[in-house]
Batch of 2 targets.
Target 1
Amino acid sequence: AQSVAQPEDQVNVAEGNPLTVKCTYSVSGNPYLFWYVQYPNRGLQFLLKYITGDNLVKGSYGFEAEFNKSQTSFHLKKPSALVSDSALYFCAVRYTGRRALTFGSGTRLQVQP
Amino acid sequence: DAGVIQSPRHEVTEMGQEVTLRCKPISGHNSLFWYRQTMMRGLELLIYFNNNVPIDDSGMPEDRFSAKMPNASFSTLKIQPSEPRDSAVYFCASSLVAGVRTGELFFGEGSRLTVL
């Protein structure tokens, strides 16, 4: 089945340290991949997307993600975490021939001061 | 731009009552999506429209759920009759889809539904 998986329910990191939130995908063909962030009681906000081209994608708030076709991964990264980055992060994929996005289960990022 | 606007933000109702959730997409966007978020099932796509036409409603749980998009600037999601298991946050999102590429989805703030 075509989907995305977020293997970690929660990631804890100290402020100032680098962070990684993992995402793997299972999509035939060329996937379109996305990262979103959700703060408490808010809607999802777009961070970045990979459609084609450079495997390293830069997005909002200093986040970036690397598309790795051989490992079928699209991990979200940030060189230096902020307490304000604490939120719920979703990876999403667009299936070939479909316009809606399918979301992963989400990973809660907790950045400790 | 005001973004995607949803109403009501919170709704508390009793089992068996009709619930109508409303959404105004971003002007110029041609696709509209309804998602439901629960702790148990995460984010689920219910239905999406392209140019006001329902394209995929396979995620609609059952006949109690219906969605309409009478024009490009308005959509409703109706639950009749409502049940406690319908309690969730319902999100509307819109997007500009051009050709084979999908632009990112822009989400509203959600409608939190509690069915007692």
Target 2
Amino acid sequence: EVQLVESGGGLIQPGGSLRVSCGASGFTVSGNYMSWVRQAPGKGLEWVSVISSGGRTYYADSVKGRFTISRDNSKNTLYLQMDSLRAEDTAVYYCTRVADGYNQAFDYWGQGTLVTVSS
Amino acid sequence: EIVLTQSPGTLSLSPGERATLSCRASQSITSSYLAWYQQKPGQAPRLLIYGASSRATGIPDRFSGSGSGTDFTLTISRLEPEDFAVYYCQQYRSSLWTFGQGTKVEIK
């Protein structure tokens, strides 16, 4: 069974850094495109970043230069390192799998981890 | 960047009625890369439709998608109580993904 479990969210001051993690089971992170999608409180979905099976990374303009996506194949875990955090980065961060068989749609989602940027 | 605009913002309907949700793209997109998701309060989104018209595994056949170019539609043929939720369209192009702002389907 495919499962994605995020962790690492919390309260962080503006300008600070935080790393959120996503443990995967039932498939290999390295064999798939993996992505982060966020949702600010009461708002819609915003795509954040993706890492390809080959390790290429892409980012939304809103986080480019501040966030870094990575993975640890030995732990089958995806990460999002968030630096220079701003109040507008406050959101639930979802880890998702990009389904090649579903034309680049997101077929599995974690339960999300809340990141709150506030002083 | 391709912008997706969903309408209406809120749709008030009764169980058993037909729901028609629209998603319009700011430029023509490949229908293969248009998807729809359902999100209920406190839950992660769930993939409903991919490739504009193909249902994901386990999705009931009352959900259908159509469209091409810049105009896409999600139709729920007969609303069940569990279908009242927020629906998002999403597109993919050149390693970038974008979502529409969502349509809330609420009980009238």
